[in-house]
Amino acid sequence: VQIGGPTGAFVVIVAGIVAQHGLAGLTVATIMAGLILLGLGLAKLGGVIKFIPHPIVTGFTSGIAVIIFSSQIRDLLGLDLVEVPGEFFAKWGAYVSALPTADWPAMAVGGGTLLLVLLWPRVSHRIPSPFVALVAATVTAALLHLPVETIGARFGDLDFSLPTPSLPSVNEAMLVSLVGPAITIALLGAIESLLSAVVADGMIGGRHRSNMELVAQGVANVVTPIFGGIPATGAIARTATNVKNGGRSPVAGIVHAVTLLAITLFAGAWAARIPLAALAAILVVVAYNMSEWRSFRDEIRTAPRSDSAVMVSTFLLTVVVDLTVALSVGMVLAAFLFMKRMAEVSNVQAISREMLEREEEEEERSEEAVQKWRGLVPRGVEVYDVNGPFFFGAAETFGEYLRQVSGKPKSIVLDLEGVPAMDSTGLRALTILVQQRLKQNIPVFVVGLQDQPRELILRSPLADLLGRERLDLSAEEAVEMIRNEGLIITSREARIPKLEP
């Protein structure tokens, strides 16, 4: 259901490239961006969008809705403004200053179009209400000779002939200088297209193919510049309009393209007569529909404060700065908050014979780890039950906990049955612990290793410190080995590799 084309997000990028490299530079940069998108799709990197949290998508989408709404106020009210500032607050300041110049015919056309868009679905869902409203507004304005600004009046004579394919001359220096702009176009196009696809998934209950989406956008951006086109991507506003008006298959996108081509070639004169106030009214409805204000409200009411903060930050940055900054900051915030949460859910519990006996006297504990080791831990042996992902967010917590433990046990058992994953920082923390204990002649045993941590340890020097043949020990086997003093590893028997600081 995705509709492709140029979007407002590209305005600043396109303007900058044209100013520095000219139209030829924009053509080359767009083609290069298309090739990059093709590469991303063929490399199956489209699934990265799955890592974008819902609060970011909601904040981004709501921000785009506000931007669309804000961009239509001048035309909707017929304000006398030669240029509208690009910055959000300056734009609204200009609107307020220009309110006395509001044009009543334009407001009448915009208001009538708005009412028709909202009320037509009660008459029929078969014919899209924006189409009916657009035709009605254009015919009415033409028959009544209303003094409203039209597409033709704003942009002058329009060329409705089919563009002739052409390619600019390219040299090595141009290609090198356009690498940066091409990467920017490609990344922005990929993010916006895939975000648009995610939004569309939510609207229709579907599931897009991320990699094929990138391939398709890549082909589009390679071909369209040859015909004078500018960068294109999946357009959230047009896609939302398509879905809201019944589009449910790729045929809708094909019909959209063919319709635009037919209008361009055969109805260009009529297109030039479309009142800008009518277009503005339709886009105001589109902005409202895609604002997801209910989801925004529910996220603030029910979601954790951290998620709400990410959503509001993304929303504000999208509106006030630009969507590239908003997505970057939103992703960084979400990543840090995720790491904080993972560190919080990871925990270490010390279990010893003495502690179990005290607990048994006071009250029966129901923790699985305590029940597992009750009656099994020999005196003088400490068991550390580790739960949760053992990555760099949790490694510091683990190390701090162990530094607080006083005394010198005879042996240490690390129960890692509750650790589903481990990264290199967690591995290093574990290695340092084992090194330190072996230097104190305290043997260390690891039990309950899951597949990922086991594979990681096997590829590291830690496997030799622990003994490769002892990585698959059960709790009972480890205790039996501890009781058999002849099998205890000491620092003299273990080869301890030196770690880089």
In brief:
The chain has about 500 residues and is mainly alpha-helical.
Task: Report on the architecture of this protein.
The protein has 501 residues and is mostly helical. It is 61% helix and 6% strand. The chain is built from 24 helices and 6 strands. It has helices at residues 11-42, 54-71, 73-77, 88-98, 104-119, 129-143, 151-155, 172-177, 179-204, 210-223, 236-244, 250-266, 268-271, 276-290, 293-302, 305-320, 323-345, 353-362, 368-373, 392-403, 424-439, 451-458, 462-466, 475-483; strands spanning 4-5, 233-234, 347-352, 381-387, 411-418, 444-447. The chain has a 4-stranded mixed sheet with strand order 3-4-5-6, with helices on both faces. Strands 1-2 form a two-stranded antiparallel ribbon. Helix 20 (392-403) links the parallel strand 4 (381-387) and strand 5 (411-418). Helix 11 (236-244) crosses helix 14 and helix 17 runs parallel beside helix 20 (392-403). The longest helix is centred in the first third of the chain and has 32 residues, at 11-42. The radius of gyration is 32 Å and the shape is elongated. It starts with a strand and ends in an 18-residue tail after the last helix.
